Amino acid sequence: MPYTLLRIFAGLFLISRLLFHPEAAQAATITVVNLDGPGEGFNDPSPPDPASTAGGNNGPTLGAQRLVAFQSAANIWGGLLSSPVEIRISANFNPLPCTSGSAVLGRTTPVTAHRDFAGAPLTNTWYPQALANRFAAADLAPSVNDISAVFNSAIGTTCSFPRVWYYGLDANPPDGLLDFVAVVLHELGHGLGFVSFVDLATGAKLQELDDVFSRNLEDHSTAKLYPDMTNTERVNASQNTGNLHWVGANVVAASNRLTAGVHPTGHVQMFAPNPQQSGSSVSHFDTATTPDELMEPFYTGPKDNVGLASELFRDLGWEITPPSVVSAVLPSSRSVLVDVSAAAFATIINVGPGTAIGCGITPLTSIPATFFYQATNPFTNQIIGTPNTPLSIATGGAQSFVFAFTPTAPFAPTDVHLSFGCANSTPSPIITGLNTFLLSASATPVPDIVTAAATLNNDGIVNILAATGTGVFAVATVNLGAGSAITASADTGAVVLPVSIAICETNPGTGVCLTSPGGSVTTQINTNATPTFGIFVTGMGHVPFDPAANRIFVRFKDAAGVTRGSTSVAVRTQ
Ligand SMILES: [Zn+2]
Ligand SMILES: [Zn+2]
């Protein structure tokens, strides 16, 4: 059985991240079997590494931190993959090759390979144990673990290699440290199936039979696939730099994420240096792939997502659960002059499992306006990153964005639909008033009522206590456009709910109604004025919690009945 190596270059580019990933719900159970002896490796009783503790790893000893980080990486895979059979990984720290200039970080292999078992999708084809077990819905080799993983204990101890392990869980190691979670994620990728069983040196198939990985390998200069090649042709392909390709349909379909290392056909380059590099050739994506992939042969910095390996695993037959995302827009409406930009903030939340990759915003509704978006720091609202550039969001993480439309011609209020989506997820559901943007553009000055709703728990939900109780929330406004008489009203949108709603303008200091609450209130709102409103929602029956459907909309209309501002909150009986 071949093994695979993850090696390192000096001079790494490290990416820092703000986001933290809580553990994903597991679709496959991955169990770590600690093979280290007393006092060493995963059992090292030394005090915990302070930098790793600061990075969210609360293991009480160095060994415990190693196990916590390992399990965290295993859980990332576990959240993505589904299998009815527990996946067992034996793991330990042992000395591996290491010099002052390079170090093998880890070495991982499937423990057994299986073919022609009950449930095998292909005959006469090898599968690594974890994948074979999934198809068989049974443990095909119960007496041994599925995957064997070894990590280099010489790093930071007996070896002069200057970079040492970081066991934090935030994919944000201090400069110069090696992100253990990323290394485990990479190594487990090999153990789960990112590995060719073809003998690199001779080109011979394992017992002259294909394996599920190598079936997808192509020499683009001959257009032959590995199964159809002679041994010599496979050796040639393995060192045909730039021309050894992965042709599996799922990777090809997602290959537009790459800006380099990909052929115009969508075939993705595999690592094929000449001469061959034992333990690295073939069983990795090419170092040319850009942005850097997790499954490149050299450490490319901290990562908490598996990248295109997710699609490659689909090509192998793994079932991968895509992450799902939800989104919100604030404020939910603007009215601006032609050539004046209408900006708002949006948040995309990744509810998992797994990291959402390439998340961005695309307008779906055609309006005469230019559009841009850019990530922001949610704490400061300062713009970060690059305009119109998608980015990744960790499981359970949220990313805020600013976006803006600049109208090029007048148009009436239009509920603009936006796609909040990621390269490996379906777009978030579109919910009017929550993540749509009501926009109008005028050639003459018009009111532009920018709103912010505040609920008691600041969670965007107005709670009606008991079926016939009353819930309350407030809306603050500022008129960034022309002064006008504005009528504020509230309704339940297209959904009929058993509630009655009253609204009043309030004293901004005390929140007390200035007049008795009624069905609507009309008030003069001058430029830059900041009136506030109170909304009272009285139940006449039970309102179930369905934040996508059951909402209270507050609308601000001018004398002509044109909506110049709006917001909404979810409503429920509690
Ligand atoms: Zn590797
Ligand atoms: Zn090709």
Throw out a few tags for this protein:
single chain, 574 residues, mainly beta, Immunoglobulin-like, 3 domains, 5-stranded mixed sheet, 12% helix, binds zinc ion
Describe this structure as you would to a colleague.
The protein is mainly beta and 574 residues long. It folds into 3 domains: 4-316, no CATH class; 322-444, Immunoglobulin-like (Sandwich), CATH 2.60.40.10; 445-574, Sandwich (Immunoglobulin-like). Helices cover 12% and strands 32% of the residues. The protein contains 7 helices and 33 strands. The protein has helices at residues 50-54, 62-80, 129-136, 180-192, 231-238, 249-254, 309-316, and strands at residues 4-6, 30-34, 87-94, 106-110, 113-114, 125-128, 147-152, 165-166, 178-179, 210-211, 217-219, 224-225, 244-246, 268-269, 324-330, 333-337, 342-352, 356-363, 369-376, 391-393, 398-407, 411-416, 418-421, 437-442, 449-455, 461-464, 470-479, 484-491, 499-506, 520-525, 532-539, 551-557, 563-573. The strands form 9 sheets. Strands 1-4-7-3-2 form a 5-stranded mixed β-sheet, with helices on one face. A hairpin with a 5-residue loop joins strand 32 (551-557) and strand 33. The longest helix is centred in the N-terminal third of the chain and has 19 residues, at 62-80. It is elongated. The chain starts with a strand and ends with a strand. The protein binds zinc ion (ZN) (2 copies). The site of one zinc ion has 6 residues, from strand 1 and helix 4.
